[in-house]
Amino acid sequence: MGKDTELFIVLPCFNEEEILPSSAGKMRDLLHRLVEAGTVGQGSRLLFVDDGSKDRTWELIEELHQTDPSCGGIRLSRNRGHQIAIFSGMTYAVEHGADCVITIDADLQQDIRKIPEFLSRYEEGCDIVYGIRKSRDSDRFLKKTTATAYYKLMHMLGCGLIEQSADYRLLSARAVKALSSYGESNLFIRGLVPELGFKSGTVYFDVNEREAGQSKYTVKKMLTLAFDGITSFSIQPIRWVIGLGFFVFIISVVMMIVTLIDHIRGVTVPGWSTLTISIWFLGSVQLLSLGVIGEYVGRTYMEAKKRPRYFLSDETGLGDGGRGHD
Question: Quick one: pLDDT at residue 250?
Fold first, then answer.
């Protein structure tokens, strides 16, 4: 670690023209201080990843490079989602000489003052350094509750997801290369990184208020990420469906025996309500089961296609564009 270590800080962006001038200025100042102090090498860069923005985000990235060569960027041909944007930036950085990569959201709600601590853990020999939220006090009750429940669910499913971890992390070049060897299209980086098994460390950080604009990470995107995590790392839901099927089968046998006994005894049972409830209940169980199984079949279908994860339409500062990436 030191003046020869090339650090790339990857900042995924999606329609961030309101916040980008401010956040880019802060990151440039931080990077220059790290270079001047000899903490990182002269070739260290800020790498902005435009995830198919519809506003002036890419134009601002180009302007940043024109004013400061330490700022570069890549532009995905269309919006591919936060995880793909992070992955594309990390792999691109390593392809262009990065020794280690730090990922952080462009709105800088994660505390950038902690970046020297990430580098200290890297100097101590950690290939992976996780950024861990100190608390969720700034979150609303519903988000805090659902996030806690989600981490517990993922642990029940056997995923080694680091609790309260974020996409604010450091990976060494060899960790990024190892991550790139995973072939799935539906990436869940928070779950994949612990699977690498390299020496790791942690840095705790506070979450700041967003200075401008609105978060582009909608409830729909958060739910999609959560479901990707569940279906990418466990077949336990399918086993739960099988267990539910056995449970309902046992109930059905019991109900059949009770019905036969009542019939033999000559007890007249209207049965309309029971029949209706049974049909609806069993129908809903079947649809739920088919939906869960269908989700896995669909993901198998998508993975079997082996399509490229993304394409670069433009680059500024480091290379030529137009390449596809697996």
Answer: 75
CB-based contact 21:61 (threshold 8 Å): no
Return the CATH number at 197.
3.90.550.10
Q: For residues 259 and 271, give the distance between their C-alpha atoms in angstroms, rounded to a whole number.
A: 10
pLDDT recorded at residue 285: 77
Total domain count, the chain:
2
Q: What confidence tens digit (pLDDT) does each residue in 120-138 have? A: 999 999 999 999 988 766 5
**DSSP-assigned states of every residue in 27-78:** HHHHHHHHHHTTSS-TT-EEEEEE-S-SSSHHHHHHHHHHH-TTEEEEEESS
Query: How many Cβ atoms from other residues are within 10 Å of residue 276's Cβ?
Result: 10
| Domain membership of residue 316 as a residue range | 7-139+164-215+307-325
Round to whole Å and give the CA distance between 25 and 240: 50
Q: Do 321 and 315 touch, CB atoms closer than 8 A?
A: yes
> For the purposes of burial, counting CB atoms within 10 Å of the CB of 52, is it exposed (0-12), middle (13-18) or buried (19 or more)?
buried
- Bridge partners for 47 per DSSP: 10, 72
Report the residue count for the chain: 326
Which pLDDT tens digit goes with each residue over 283-321?
A: 777 877 877 787 777 677 667 756 566 767 778 777 544
Instruction: Give pTM, 2 decimals.
Output: 0.73
Report the 10 Å Cβ neighbour count for 45. 25
